[in-house]
Amino acid sequence: MTASNVGAAFRNAAGLGADAVLVTERCADPLYRRSVRVSMGTVLQVPWTRLPVWHEAARLLHDHGFEIAALALDDAAVPLPDYARTRPERVALVLGTEGDGLGRQALSAADRTVVIPMLHGVDSLNVAATSAVALYALQNTAGDVAGES
Prior knowledge:
Radius of gyration: 14 Å
Helix content: 25-40%
Shape: globular
Number of strands: 7
Strand order of the largest sheet: 2-1-7-5-3-6-4
Mean pLDDT: 90
Structural class: alpha/beta
């Protein structure tokens, strides 16, 4: 994820109530000056950490009671409004890069695949916009939300 998108995702996480942001080794540095600027300083407010490789990260998240929900285009994906209505208490959202989306390992680590229903032939949103929509949909339901960039 680019520095601008990382900053925007952190700003969304702060404004929409995520408990933390978890980033992978492929993600731009949240402390890079462009990330900090775009986030309006929220990268210094929202707790965050880097995840280990996916097989280890999935185990850690599951051990702490999180369901892993990957936002991705998939015919079998659950529409976000349906997922939000029935979501478990603790959710770790997984977001991919623009263009490539999520890698095979991230998708295989997910317990659920979730999609934002779109209209007029548009298949997806920018990753920062996706984080905002997903967090907003989940913010009024009980439990913890951890967003991943």
